[in-house]
Amino acid sequence: MSANYRVLRDAASGEVVLPRTKWCASYWCHLRGLQFRSGLPDDEGLLFVTRSESIPATTIHMFNVFFSIAVVWLDADGVVVDKKLAKPFRPFYAPAKPAQYYLEANPGLLEQISVGDRLLFDETAAS
């Protein structure tokens, strides 16, 4: 499932928040993340999936990431529990509350999403 793309939508409005979100559940996808990339298309993101809600398992680092990103953490129900602007080469960013998913995308995403929003990511998008 690690190569699938999803459409990320706001549950309340049905509005598309991000049209191409890579479902990142494998060890290798988690390990690579956005490291060593030069950028990310505005309409794309990575949705990292962990086994259960946790702060340590959803803490990220920005080593070898050369651009700022939006990080949005969601609980098991897809509710946004935290969001932050992550800057290059910082040692770590952790959510304020336990999360099961975290989304990495371009910084503009932070303007579209609020803590408490519920997001849906179960629709398959074109790969």
What's the gist of this structure?
The chain is mostly beta strands and 127 residues long.
Question: What are the key terms here?
Answer:
127 residues, mainly beta, Jelly Rolls, seven-stranded mixed β-sheet, 2 helices, 7 strands, 8% helix, 42% strand, globular
Can you tell me the CATH superfamily? Protein of unknown function DUF192
CATH fold naming:
Jelly Rolls
Helix content: under 10%
Q: From the coordinates shown, what is the CATH architecture?
A: Sandwich
Task: Tell me what the structure shows.
- The protein is mainly β and 127 residues long.
- The chain has one domain (5-116): Sandwich (Jelly Rolls).
- Helices cover 8% and strands 42% of the residues.
- It is built from two helices and seven strands.
- It has helices spanning 27-32, 109-112; strands spanning 5-10, 16-24, 44-54, 69-74, 80-86, 99-105, 119-125.
- Strands 5-4-6-3-2-1-7 form a seven-stranded mixed β-sheet.
- The longest helix has 6 residues, at 27-32.
- It is globular.
